[in-house]
Amino acid sequence: MDSHNNQLRRGLDERHMHMIALGGAIGTGLFYGSATTIQMTGPAITLAYLIGGVVIFFIMRALGEMTLAEPVSGSISHYAGRYIGPFAGFLAGWTYWFMWIIVGMAELTAIGTYFQYWFPSVPQWVPSLVALVLMTLVNLLHVKAFGEFEFWFASIKVFAILAMMGGGLLLIFGPIDHGSTSTGVDNLFAHGGFMPHGWKGFLLSMVLVFFSFGGVELVGMTAGEAKNPLKSIPAAVNKVIWRILIFYVGALTIMLMLYPWNEIGTKGSPFVMIFDQIGIPATATILNIVVITAALSAFNSGLFSTSRMLYHLGLEGQAPRIFTKLNKAHAPQRGILFSSLLLSVAVVLNYLVPEKVFLYISSVATVAVITSWALILLTHLRFRKANRTTAFNMPFYPYSSYFALAFLGIVVILMAYVDSTVIALIVAPVWYLLVFVSYHVRQRIATKREKPAATS
C-alpha cells in the first residue's frame, strides 16, 4: 500500500459483519427470483435450496479458512494469486468484480419491478436510476456508513421474514381468518405433486437457486476492513447454513403452504403476491417495502465489493493505479464511480427490454458466481497442500471440496438446457478470452516498462 493515508480503514464492527453476511444471503434471488424457480419445479424448490445450501456451506468454509489465515481486502483474488498463480489472481479478481456488476444490474432491475406494484405507469428504469445514485453516494462515505446502512437494511429483512413466517403459520394453523383460500400442508403435494415437473424441472431450477446464493462470500471481501476478523469471520461463516434453512427453506415452505404453487406468477415478488391475493393488502404493501430494502441492500453490498476489488487489483498491479486512490473518507472513490458508470447499463436495459432483463442478467451472473466459487475451492485445495491450516478447518476436506466442485460443474451443464440461461454460456467464453488477452497485454506493458528501468 502506498501510505497510511491511502489505506482502507478497519471500521466494521462484529454486528456489521454478521448483518453483511446475512444480507448477502438474502436478496433478490429469494424475494423475486424464487417466483421463477417455483414455476420450474413446484414445491420441490425447497429441496433444491437445501441441497444448494449444503454446497454453499462448504464453499464458505473454504473461504473462511483462508480468510482467517490472511484477512485482507480483495481476498478471493489475493488467495488465488498467491496459491495458484498471477493469472489465477487476475481472473478471480476481475471475474468477481464482473459478477457483482451483473448482480448489481439484477438488483436494480428488481427495484424497478417492485415499484411497479404501486406505480404501474412509472417506467421501470426510473426507480432503478434513483437507487443507483443513492447507493453511490452512500458508498462514497466512510466504510462505517456502509456498515450502518447494511446493518439496518439486513435487520429490516430479517425482522420482516421472521414476522412473515410467524404470520403465515398463524394463517395456516392458527385462529386468523384467511378467507376462502385453501391453505395447509396439502398445497405442497396437491396440484401435480411435490415435484410436478419431475427431475428435469428440479435440476434445471438449480441454476437460479445458485444465483440466489450469490453474495454469501461477501464476508471475505470485508475482512480487510473488519475490526476483529479473527472473531467475526468464523461466527458469520458458520451461521450460513442456518440462514439458508430458515430464510430460504423455511420461508418458502410456509409461502407454498399458504397458496398453491401453480397460481404464483412471475411478475413481482411471490411474497408480496401471496399476501395480496389472500386478502391482506396492507401486509403486501409492507412486504413490498421490505423487498425494495432487500434489493437496495444487495446492491449496496455489490457496489462495495466492486470498488474494493478494483482497489486490491490496483495495488497488485492488475488494474490501473488510479483505483487505489482514496477520498477523505478513505473510500475508493474512483472504483465506486467507475463501477456505478457500468451499472447504469442496467437502467438502459430496463428501458429497452424490461420484461426479459432480469432472467438475462441473472443467467450471466450465475456463470460469474460459479467461476468465483470454483476458484475459491481450487485455491483452497492448493492452500491446504501448502500446509496452511487454521483452527477453522473445512469439514470433510478434501471430499467436500470435490463434491462442491462437481456440483458447480453440473449446474453449468444444466444451463445449456434453459432457454433464458443459454446466453450466459455464450458470454462466459467471451469474458474468459477478454480476461486472458487483458492479462497478457498488461504483462507485456509491464515488461517493457521494466527494461528501460533496468538499463538506466
Automatic annotation (TrEMBL):
Sequence intervals crossing the membrane: 20-38, 44-63, 83-105, 125-146, 158-176, 201-219, 240-258, 278-299, 335-353, 359-378, 399-417, 423-441
One Pfam match: AA_permease
Gene Ontology terms: cellular component: plasma membrane
Any one Gene Ontology BP term: transmembrane transport
Segments forming domain Amino acid permease/ SLC12A: 16-444
Membrane topology: Multi-pass membrane protein
Family listed: Belongs to the amino acid-polyamine-organocation (APC) superfamily. Amino acid transporter (AAT) (TC 2.A.3.1) family.
InterPro entries: AA-permease/SLC12A_dom (IPR004841)
Localization annotation: Cell membrane
Name this protein carries in UniProt: Amino acid/polyamine/organocation transporter, APC superfamily
Keywords: Amino-acid transport, Cell membrane, Membrane, Transmembrane, Transmembrane helix, Transport
Species this chain originates from: Laceyella tengchongensis
Record-linked Gene3D superfamilies: Amino acid/polyamine transporter I
Main localization (coarse): membrane
